[in-house]
Amino acid sequence: MEIEIPRELLPVDGRFGCGPSKVRPAQIEALAAVGSSLLGTSHRQAPVKNLVGSVRERLAQLFRLPDGYEILLGNGGSTAFWDAAAFGLIERRSQNLVFGEFGGKFATAAAAPWLEAPDVRKAEPGSRTDAEVVDGVDVYAWPHNETSTGVSSPVSRVDADGALTVIDATSAAGGIDFDITQADLYYFAPQKNLGSDGGLWFAAASPAAIERIERIAASDRYIPEFLSLKNAVDNSRLNQTLNTPALTTLHLLDTQLGWMLDNGGLEWAAGRTAESSGLLYDWAEASKVATPFVAEAAHRSPVVVTIDFDERVDAAALAKELRANGIVDTEPYRKLGRNQLRIATFVSIEPDDVRRLIQSIDYVLERTAG
């Protein structure tokens, strides 16, 4: 069945994907205006170094960095960072909280043969678990927001002498407010709330994290040059990366950061994502055929909303109908295998478009639900 949703019900922009996020037209226009003078420029020259410097300064403003904290960046995305952390951040053993796909990936990287086996604390998808102090653990790591399930976990320092609190923030950074002093390393790729592309990782690092990086680098541990966090520290301080960075990623990010700061920074951004996600959670709570996947309201993500449907609704067919009408990427995370929709409410997504999305879903459900 193909259902044509009336135009007046459709979102102005139908991109609700939780992978690469919607990129605002203003970012594309800003890139087009400088593309011919920026792209193809050496990353050791002023145009690119100034751009990196602007990104680092704006991220420091957005996260309200205290004295001593630094913004680091490096080539590759979060996957590269996980391996870099295994080489240059974990001294002996990590504790990894796993309540979805991405927390599990860091736990896998932390099982490197030169480290002790990580202490992995798992929770069922849709729930979360908490850190617990364990002797011998020197890194406590978990996602601020689990993109695969729509579970959010607070950023709160683990009170363990000499240990680092390390937070995976890829889908949270820029969309959930928090206190950076509660983390030693808050790392992310910028293709979610920060409205950019892939190819780079960023991190807000505490003095303790930088000291750990430098100490491990000075030891006899083998560390590949590309995965050296010490290289990232040294190059970041020069506003550059080891290899040529993704210039489009940097420029899209810089423009997005300027937009967010001009509107009120992280507090404003968090209010916007909370408004959008709240609309969806309220709708699901009131629905006769839908319910929020994350049962505990306090655990629900404000930036990735997962909604389960009962047996009267074929969520895959619903997503297909939405896609045919220009509302794209609402399918669930592929490995969960649930009868659900997964909808991004990142900062770039207009709350009014979320309202129209709900109207569109209702329009399809009225014509398909048993």
What does this structure look like?
The mean pLDDT is 96. The protein is built from ten helices and twelve strands. It has a seven-stranded mixed sheet, sandwiched between helices. It is globular, with a radius of gyration of 21 Å. It folds into two domains: 14-23 and 265-368, Alpha-Beta Complex (Aspartate Aminotransferase, domain 1), CATH 3.90.1150.10; 26-262, 3-Layer(aba) Sandwich (Aspartate Aminotransferase, domain 2). It is α/β, with parallel strands linked by helices. Helices cover 37% and strands 14% of the residues.
Q: Which labels suit this protein?
A:
370 residues; 7-stranded mixed sheet; Aspartate Aminotransferase, domain 2; 37% helix; alpha/beta
Shape: globular
Q: Quickly name the level 1 CATH class of the largest domain.
A: Alpha Beta
The fraction of residues assigned to DSSP E strands is: 5-15%
Distance between the termini: 14 Å
Q: Helix/strand/pairing class, anyone?
A: alpha/beta
Helix content: 25-40%
The rounded Rg comes to 21 Å
Q: Could you name the ranges where pLDDT drops below 50 across 5 or more consecutive residues?
A: none
Strand order across the largest sheet: 1-9-8-7-4-2-3
Total beta strands: 12
Number of structural units classed as domains: 2
Using the 3D structure, state the CATH architecture of the largest domain.
3-Layer(aba) Sandwich
Main sheet characteristics: 7 strands, mixed
What is the name of the CATH superfamily of the largest domain? Type I PLP-dependent aspartate aminotransferase-like (Major domain)
